[in-house]
Amino acid sequence: MHNIKQQDLIKTSSFINGSWLKSQHSSIAFDVVNPANLLCLTKVHDAQATDAENAIEAASRSFPTWTKLTAYQRADHLVAWAKLISQHEDDLARLLTLEQGKPLSEALAEIRYGISYLHWFSEEGKRIYGDTIPALSPQQRILVTKQAVGVATAITPWNFPNAMLLRKAAAALAAGCTFVVKPASETPLSALALAYLAEQADLPQGSFNVVVGTDAKAIGEVLTKHPKVNKFSFTGSTETGKKLIAQCAEGVKKVSMELGGNAPFIVFDSADIDQAITGLISNKFRNAGQTCVCANRIYVQQNILDTFTKKLTQSLTTLKTGNGFDQTTNISPLISSKAVDKVRHLVNNAQQQGATIEFQGDLHFDNKTGNKSDCFYPATLLSGVSQQMEIAKTEIFGPVISLISFNNEDELIEQANATDAGLAAYFYSQNINQIWRVSEALQYGMVGINESALSNAAAPFGGVKGSGNGREGSHYGLDDYLEIKYLCFGGID
Ligand code: SIN
Q1: Around Cβ 446, how many Cβ atoms within 10 Å?
Q2: In the structure, what pLDDT confidence band is assigned to residue 363 with cuts at 50, 70 and 90?
Q3: Is the pLDDT of residue 493 over 60?
C-alpha cells in the first residue's frame, strides 16, 4: 500500500489472544476502499461471531492477571504503547487518510488525540480512590473500594477510527479491565495497526483484542450478550445504540453510549461575528462534517443575519474540496456514496420546502490525483431553513450549513432543545448574564461558549437524552469501567 513506510503496520486479520487470526476459511474477506478514489486498498479477513466469542474467552482468561497488576504497572504498558504509536504517527495518519479520507493534517491530529487518552488514563488509573464512611456502631468500619468490572467490549465508529478506539481502550485497560473491540468495517486498518503496536509494546496476551468483520449484527450480539462480558460501550448512531442497549439489558450489562447529535450553534446579536464564523467553519468542516459534535442547526439572531450570511459566504469561497493527501484540501470525501446521497437528499428536500442555496463550492476534481469518486460533496450554505424541515431534525453528517433565524432568547432556547439529541451545543455571546442563562438552559452534555472545539482527554465527553449515557475521557471516564464495592468490617474491639 503506497505511502506507508513501515509496511508491518498493515494487518489484514483480527488480533485475538495475542495472535493474528489464521482462518480455516481464508476465502472470506472484504475490501477496504479508499473513499477518495474508490480503489481497493487491501482485503481484510472477515471475522465471524465465533471469532468474537474466542476473543471474549481470551479477554476473560487474561483478566485475573491484568487486573492484579498495580495501576503503575498497567500505566507502564499504556505508556509503552503510546510511545510506539507516537513513533509511527506519520504512517498511522497516512493509513487513516487512505481508509477514511480525512485531510492528512486532521488524521495526524487524530492520532495525537488518541495518544492523549493513553497518557491521560495511564495517570488517572493511579487515582482510583475509595472512601471511608463513618459507621453506625463503634465496632464497625466502613470502606468503599473500586474494582474493574471485568471484560469490556466495544464497537467503534469509522469517523475517528483511531481516537474513539483508544478513548475506550485506554480507560478500560487503566481501570484493570481487559478489552475486545469491533471497529467499523469501513476502517479496520487503523484499529489493526494499533493492535500491531500493542503487540510490539508487549501488552499481555488476551488483554487487548480486535475483531474485524462485516457481520455487525452477529458480532454485535456476541459483544453485548456473551455471559463473560461485563461492560459494553458503543459510539455510533442513536438507532443502533438503542438496539444494542436492549441486547445488553438481557444480561444486565453495564453500558455507555456515545450516540448521535444534532448540535445547535447559536449566534446572538452581542457575539463577535468574526469569532463565531471562524469557530463555525473549523467545527462544521472537520472531517467533512462527519463528527457527532458537528454544528447541525445554525441559529442566527435576525438583526445580524444579513451581515453574518455575507461574511460567512465570503469565508466559504476559500475552502477547497479534494483528496485528503492534497495539502490544500479543507473538505475531504465522505465515507461512501450512500453518505453523499443522504446529504444530497436533505439539501434537495430543504430547497423544496423553501430553503435557498446561498453558496455551494466547486468539487475541484483533479484527474491527475485520481479523485474519481462519487464520495465528494462540496461546502454548501442554506438559508431560510426552518425548525420543521427534515434537515433540521436529522444529523446531516456532511459539509452543509443550515441557517435558521430567531428573534429572542426564549424562542431560541425552546427551538435549540426541541430534539431528542443532547450531545453538544455551541453559542456565541458577549453578554455575561446571557452566557450563564443559556449555558444552564441548554439540555446538552457539552456546551461550547465562544468556543467550537471541545475535544480534550481531560474533559468529560458525552451526551444526555437520545445522545447516550456515560462519559469518556476525564476522571469520570473511568467510572464506567469500575464497580463500587462496600466493605463493612464488624466486631472491632
Ligand atoms: C465524534 O464525533 O464522535 C467524536 C469527536 C471528538 O471526540 O472530537
Answers
A1: 23
A2: confident
A3: yes
CB 193 near ligand 1, within 6 Å: no
Consecutive H or E run containing 156: strand 151-156
Give the Cα separation of 277 and 293 in Å (integer). 17
Q: Is 258 among the catalytic positions? A: yes
Q: Which of 304, 307, 299 is nearest to 409 (CA)?
A: 299
Q: Would you mind telling me the total number of residues written for the chain in this entry?
A: 493
Distance, CA of 86 to CA of 98 (rounded, Å): 19
- pTM passes above 0.90: yes
Atom of ligand 1 nearest to the CA of 258: 3
Kindly list the structural domains of the chain, giving each domain's residue range(s) and its CATH number in brackets, ordered by start: 7-259+467-486 (3.40.605.10), 263-456 (3.40.309.10)
CA torsion angle for 64, 67, 68, 74 (degrees, to 10)? Answer: 140
Q: Does the beta carbon of 283 lie inside 6 Å of ligand 1?
A: no
Which one is catalytic: 57, 186, 199, 258?
Answer: 258
CB burial class (10 A; 0-12, 13-18, 19+) of residue 395? Answer: buried
Under 8 Å between Cβ of 259 and 227: no
pLDDT in tens, 347-356: 999 999 999 9
CA-to-CA dists, residue 204 to 163, 167, 480, angstroms: 22, 19, 22
Report residue 368's pLDDT band, with 50, 70 and 90 as the boundaries.
low
Q: Is 99 labeled as catalytic in the residue annotation?
A: no
From residue 11, alpha-carbon distances to 45, 160, 212 in Å are 10, 18, 11
Q: In this structure, is the dihedral angle defined by the CA atoms of residues 289, 292, 294 and 297, taken in order, positive or negative?
A: positive
Catalytic residue from among 177, 292, 294, 375:
292
- The protein residue whose alpha carbon is closest to atom 3 in ligand 1 is 292
The amino acid present at 282, given as its one-letter code, is S
Its sign, for the CA torsion 452, 453, 455, 456, is negative
